[in-house]
């Protein structure tokens, strides 16, 4: 591995349970570091502007769009992609719900949708309200409107939204 200079830095990331070190240009996004340097292809490059959500992963348990985050800002972080949600050969309950409810068509946005849904369900479980939450004093009830609002940063080019909402609704009850 080459030594960093004033234009690059060495970062260490826990990606799906494996610690990886690499030297990156200080301007490289986390998405490019994952895909181009580490060969992690679950997060997809869609818009490269943080507008579509196809690059969403969980960073220390919180959902982030990796196309907007510099790799150097993630140094030392735990990154979980949709591929890393599998446990002992079993799909994560959200991924299983996507399968059961046919929550995908072409599948391009699916890894980002699944990571975003996992993060969103954790946020709702922690009591974080959304724009459409009726009572800010109570834990939010994940109605279809709540799910749509909370997932609004994740676009599906195939418009599989009814099945995506159904999948997240199913996963929220498990």
TrEMBL record:
One of the Pfam families matching this protein, by short name: Fer2_2
PROSITE patterns: 2FE2S_FER_1 (PS00197), 2FE2S_FER_2 (PS51085)
Entries under InterPro entries matching the protein: 2Fe-2S-bd, 2Fe-2S-bd_dom_sf, 2Fe-2S_ferredoxin-like_sf, 2Fe-2S_ferredoxin-type, 2Fe2S_fd_BS, Aldehyde_Oxdr_Iron-Sulfur, Beta-grasp_dom_sf
Keyword Oxidoreductase attributed: yes
Keywords: Iron, Metal-binding, Oxidoreductase
Residue span, 2Fe-2S ferredoxin-type domain: 9-85
Entry keyword tRNA-binding: no
Stored PANTHER family: OXIDOREDUCTASE WITH IRON-SULFUR SUBUNIT, OXIDOREDUCTASE, IRON-SULPHUR BINDING SUBUNIT-RELATED-RELATED
Protein name, UniProt field: (2Fe-2S)-binding protein
Organism: Mycolicibacterium setense
């Amino acid at each position: 591995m080459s030594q960093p200079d004033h234009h690059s830095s060495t970062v260490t990331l826990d990606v799906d349970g494996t610690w990886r070190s690499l030297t990156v240009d200080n301007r490289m996004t986390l998405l490019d570091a994952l895909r181009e340097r580490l060969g992690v292809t679950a997060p997809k490059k869609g818009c490269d502007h943080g507008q579509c959500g196809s690059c969403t992963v969980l960073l220390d348990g919180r959902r982030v769009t990796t196309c907007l985050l510099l790799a150097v800002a993630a140094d030392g972080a735990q990154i979980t992609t949709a591929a890393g949600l599998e446990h002992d050969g079993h799909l994560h309950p959200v991924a299983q719900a996507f399968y059961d409810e046919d929550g995908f068509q072409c599948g391009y946005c699916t890894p980002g949708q699944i990571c975003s849904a996992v993060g969103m369900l954790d946020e709702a479980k922690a009591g974080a309200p959304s724009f459409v939450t009726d009572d800010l004093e109570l834990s939010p009830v994940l109605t279809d409107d709540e799910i749509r609002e909370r997932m609004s940063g994740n676009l599906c080019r195939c418009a599989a939204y009814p099945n995506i909402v159904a999948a997240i609704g199913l996963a929220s009850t498990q």
